[in-house]
Amino acid sequence: MNTSIILLLLLVLAAFSYFFGRKRALAVSEGNRGANKLHSLPGYYGHLVVVWCLLPSLVALMLWSFFSPTLISQNVVSSLPAEIQSADETTINLFMNRVESMAKAGSIDATAEPAQQAAARRYMDLQANSSIMKAVLVFALAGFGIFWALRKIAPKFRARNQVEKVIVGLMMLCASIAIVTTLGIVLSVLFESMRFFQAIPITEFLFGTHWSPQTAIRSDQVGGSGSFGMIPLFAGTLLISVIALAIAVPVGLMSAIYLSEYASKRVRAWVKPGLEVLAGIPTVVYGFFAALTVAPFIRNIGEAIGLTVASESALAAGLVMGVMIIPFMSSLSDDVINAVPQAMRDGSYGMGATRSETIKQVILPAALPGIVGAFLLAASRAIGETMIVVMAAGLSANLTANPLEAVTTVTVQIVTLLTGDQEFDSPKTLAAFALGLTLFVLTLILNIVALRIVRKYREQYD
Predict the structure, then answer these.
(1) In-domain check, residue 429
(2) Rounded mean pLDDT of 424-430?
(3) Which of 240, 353, 372, 432 could be cross-linked to 348 through a Cys-Cys bond (beta carbons 3.0 to 4.6 Å apart)?
């Protein structure tokens, strides 16, 4: 039986079990003729039966679905002829890929080898038996859980406490999944970065001023060992991000102040959705706009006043990126400013302050933590942008502070290094993980510094 059908039937069974549990609780209560009242509302007893119906069965279904394919593959491999089992691992994997493809399609390919046809038949038989056993086990556990929960229902049974414990446990599980996922990402990047630093000295990576990751694939090829200095990449990232934030932060913050404090309801109803439309435009559209419109415009202006402007420049990418992240800064800042209590505004006006003085001395200090959060989100968006940089700023790793020259960023190089069929044993590919780890550390430091500043200011303000 298909897993989707099993889940659907389990949900239907859980819905019926809720009514069985609720009805059982009411029956037990009436059976005591009012001498003992139910500890919890009847609905909690129904939810308790649902929990006992779903929890064991879903755990069994998840474990069976996770381990079953591996066990079936191992069983099929162990039944293969001796000459195939004695082959190398690559040959066995190719053989099993063909077998699994036929089993997934549900038909035997007549052009396949006899051993593959026999293995595919065995694979499909094991799959069919596994599906039947899985369904029997899941529904048996669900039925036993319903029976057990109905037996436990009594007037003094604390059903609400049990249900709330399960809910708290599910919340803790969700939080743990988020933590474990983050930890797994960090560790995977860290381990691959350690492999990179075994081939390339960390001092060369951190303090090198030249980036050219091309390496020779064979020993007889002409090609260097590569240059892996990260400073040009982070300099380009910083340059483009500064230009983008110089556009997005003032415009976004000022537009948020205007919409929340000065604009009428009619103007706000038109302007705010108009700003937020910018957030829904795909970044590739911004990239085309930067490459086809903004970059030539900047180049023509520069040539008109005697400046040398590259066809792909950091200024073009930064300007368009700044326009793209204006909605992030504006929308979040607007929400934070509107969250400042009206009583603080009224108190300031009552003391004789003007509207502009109230905004500068009361509203903005109170909303500062949220505004800093909006700034960090905008900065993260600028640092992580790739498409606009590729199309408007280029791929040249130049160490320069001139916004009229072509530069590249860390994220663009990560994409470039991992594009196509790559060998994950070469420093060229492993450099992407080292760049990702360094970017993660720098972003973490930025967040910590920002949180310290916000906490210090909040203490002074409170």
Answers:
(1) no
(2) 78
(3) 353
Asked whether residue 454 is domain-assigned, the answer is no
Domain count of the fold of the chain: 2
Could you give the CA distance from residue 461 to residue 217 in angstroms, rounded to a whole number? 60
Strands 211-212 and 227-228: antiparallel
Q: Which two tokens stand for residue 204?
A: 């060369």
pTM (2 d.p.): 0.69
Looking at the fold, whether 149 and 242 belong to one and the same domain comes out as no
Asked if residue 217 is part of any domain, the answer here is: no
Last residue of a domain, one of 97, 126, 157: 157
Q: CA Rg, the chain, in Å?
A: 31
DSSP 462: -
Cβ(230)–Cβ(438) under 8 Å?
A: yes
**Predicted confidence (pLDDT) per residue in 80-106, tens digit:** 777 777 777 777 778 888 888 887 777
In a domain, 462, yes or no: no
**Residue given tokens 């209560």 in the structure block:** 29
What token pair was written down for 381? 């968006």
Residues 271 and 380 in one domain: yes
DSSP 424: T
Residue 228 β-bridge partners: 211
The whole-angstrom separation of Cα 171 and Cα 187 is 24
Could you list the residue range(s) of the whole structural domain that residue 142 is in? 3-157
Q: Mean pLDDT in the chain?
A: 83
Residues 237 and 378 in one domain: yes
Residues 276 and 407 grouped into a single domain: yes
- Residue 352 token pair: 């004789």
Residue 211: strand, helix, or coil: strand
Q: Under DSSP, is residue 395 helix (H, G, I), strand (E, B) or coil?
A: coil
If residue 228 lies in a helix (H) or strand (E), which one and from where to where? strand 227-228
Q: Cβ(200)–Cβ(427) under 8 Å? A: yes
Any alpha helices (H) in 258-340, and if so which ranges?
265-277, 283-289, 295-304, 314-339
**How far is Cα 48 from Cα 331, in angstroms, rounded to an integer?**
42
Nearest Cα residue to 370 out of 341, 398, 334, 408: 334
**8 Å CB contact between 119 and 92:** no
40, 153, 377 from 29: Cα distances, Å: 11, 10, 55
In this prediction, residues 12-20 reach a mean pLDDT of: 86
